[in-house]
Amino acid sequence: MALRSLPLLVLVAVALRESCLGASSHSLKYFFYSISEPSQDLPHFVSLGYVDGQIFVHYDSNSQRREPRVSWMKKVGKEDPQYWDRNTQREHESEEAFRESLQTLRLRYNQSKGLHTWQWMYGCELQADGRKGGFMQYGYDGRTFITFDKERLTWVAPQPQAQITQRKWDADRGYNQRKKFYLEEICIEWLERYLSYGKETLLRTEPPEVTMSLKLEVEDGMETHVCRVDGFYPREIDASWTRDGEVWLPDTLHGSVAPNADGTYHRWLSIQIDPKERGRYRCHVEHNGLQKPLDVALEEPKSSLGIIIGCVVAGLVLLGVIVVGIWFFKRRQDDYKKAATSEEGSNRSSQDQTA
């Protein structure tokens, strides 16, 4: 059985990017990665499972065991005691199949021994309106090797070397039908089961916190305002700039949704405007954790009078410190002179007594 490729970090990035499917959507995805010449620290085979973009199971050729990565997966073993053994055995079989595929592809591409990668990526999505989606892809040495078209029940081979695999798999109509059934039915059933196990985490909602910052452009007198949306879950969010209540796209930049260390997400968006039109703009945010959308006004620049007053106060404080320091220094000098005079008088008395 042949398989798919792209570097592992690329696959992880794709996993996170494709998890953003719309409001209240959910996804289950798996990524398999094999390397022909691993280092001592890098296993030659790794598989990762993601629910809603978060790793929940892991296997590699060093541990030789599929293991949970989240606490709620412990519930699986209680309901299905053979779950971990059964899936570990499947990982062993995939590991061996990947090893064979690397050898086959190296010969097919007429390559000498060296560093080569072989990867497989598949999964399913369940969207808020009940629509289901699924995909399956393979790649070799960082390039797409073959992709499954589940609607047409055929494989798409962008490279000549993949056409041999395409003909082999398309010749077995039952094989393609089983792949389609898995993506549309079995995968969705497992996704729903995992969501029920981790509902306290995966189905929670945490509203975003919106903060604004301002940067003045001195040269042309324009202002750049940055709207940061932070601490929200799930990751699906609608954040945009509006002008007079309408979505405004000119002179705007948007950052992608990115994870925080605590499992929530953040995003930023900026806009450059004429200060005279500041009152026309808002940062508009919609999220499942909000009872109603937020429309946050732009931050007003700090008053120059306040800055001047602050500087005056700081100057007065500094002046006070200097005056106190001078007084303390003069006081120490006076004390020193008095102490020196007293010591001389006592010495004279002693000398007078001995004369």
Automatic annotation (TrEMBL):
Pfam families: C1-set, MHC_I. SMART domains: IGc1. InterPro entries: Ig-like_dom (IPR007110), Ig-like_dom_sf (IPR036179), Ig-like_fold (IPR013783), Ig/MHC_CS (IPR003006), Ig_C1-set (IPR003597), MHC_class-I_related (IPR050208), MHC_I-like_Ag-recog (IPR011161), MHC_I-like_Ag-recog_sf (IPR037055). It is a single-pass type I membrane protein. The keyword Disulfide bond applies. Keywords: Disulfide bond, Glycoprotein, Immunity, Membrane, MHC I, Signal, Transmembrane, Transmembrane helix. The chain crosses the membrane at residues 305-329. It comes from the Eukaryota. Residues 1-22 form the signal peptide. This is MHC class I antigen. It comes from Crotalus adamanteus (Eastern diamondback rattlesnake).
